[in-house]
């Protein structure tokens, strides 16, 4: 099994850290990683969410895309022979607006090596709402809108299924990002039905297999106080590998010191506990 961090961010992330990519890559080399995918948030449609301050923190501006690709390409060359650096994006599933995604991605299709496709937004009070912003925002703009956690979870996984179908149309290797992100605030919100989560996860297995979409085994939930567990359960990792669905560790690092976080958890899960 190649030691690969398949989900990471850079100084181009508005809610990340200003450190240079070199610091992330040096830590990856130190920890023995062989491949490192840089997967920054690409631009979003204007006023996707009705919160100007939040919008300013979510993603790159379209004007920054050339600089981002040049930046990662330069580091890819610089680390050649020490670490395989791959050029990627963490692409949001934009409900009923895949045309925007296609327009953003198309100029870079020939160089994109990795696409992590994530569901961060659901329809909610006043329009689209970010599911992983703050517990109070979730409660006000999603839970009160749908009425129950069961309905929010159901809507989330409906979008996950649509995201998998969309991922198949993107260039490079495709993975579904942090499939359990809906549980980020599980300690701060009414409990979710774990039976419902399991049933919906089981339902996506044939979709992943049919589309050739892998899974981002994202460990970031372990470092979130309101979650305290990985975003992908071990039983689901085993079910994916049994069906030939690629499982790729993702630190989802937004700071250099987060590179490699939770690797032992992923390695243990891949080895069957």
From TrEMBL:
Claim: Amino-acid biosynthesis is one of the keywords in the record: yes
InterPro entries in alphabetical order: Histidinol_P_phosphatase_HisJ, PHP_dom, Pol/histidinol_Pase-like
Domain PHP: 5-220
Span of the signal peptide: none
Keywords, in A-Z order: Amino-acid biosynthesis, Histidine biosynthesis, Hydrolase
Name of the protein in question: Histidinol-phosphatase
Top-level EC class as recorded in UniProt: hydrolase
